[in-house]
């Protein structure tokens, strides 16, 4: 892929997740910051999700615009992230992002890793 790809429906973020991502980006006070969502090898099920702030868009990134926010997914991760729903939950147990992945054949007990 020679340039970044604009994608609308690769990932669904709930209203709670969008609000939390917006608050996190605002707290970082970076005008050009975007949220990078990625998949790496590891975790007890084989793959794990990661989140990071990034001010650079790579040539092969998938670029998602949601509610005024810009999300980035690298090309390798996009094959595992298609159709994913990301939610944010706060409870007495703590606060965390919850990822529901229709491509996962198994997930670990804590939900932070998966296999395909």
Helix/strand order: EEHEEEEHEEEE
> What percent of the residues sit in helical stretches (DSSP H or I)?
10-25%
Class from secondary-structure proportions: alpha/beta
CATH topology: Hypothetical Protein Aq_1857, Chain: A
- The low-confidence parts are none
| Coarse morphology | globular
Q: CATH first level: which class?
A: Mainly Beta
| Tally of domains | 1
DSSP strand tally? 10
CATH architecture: Sandwich
Strand order of the largest sheet: 1-5-6-3-4-10-9
Termini separation comes to 24 Å
The overall average pLDDT, rounded, is: 81
* Count of helical stretches: 2
What summary fits the major beta sheet? 7 strands, mixed
Query: Radius of gyration, rounded?
Result: 14 Å
β-strand amount: over 45%
What's the name of the CATH homologous superfamily? HesB-like domain
Describe the structure.
With 116 residues, the chain is α/β, with parallel strands linked by helices. It has one domain (5-111): Hypothetical Protein Aq_1857, Chain: A (Sandwich), CATH 2.60.300. 18% of the residues lie in helices and 47% in strands. The chain is built from 2 helices and 10 strands. The chain has helices at residues 15-28, 75-81; strands at 5-7, 11-13, 34-42, 46-54, 62-66, 69-73, 84-91, 94-100, 106-107, 113-115. The strands form 2 sheets. It has a 7-stranded mixed β-sheet. It has a 3-stranded mixed β-sheet with strand order 2-7-8. A hairpin with a 3-residue loop joins strand 3 (34-42) and strand 4 (46-54). The radius of gyration is 14 Å and the shape is globular. The model has no long low-confidence stretch (mean pLDDT 81).
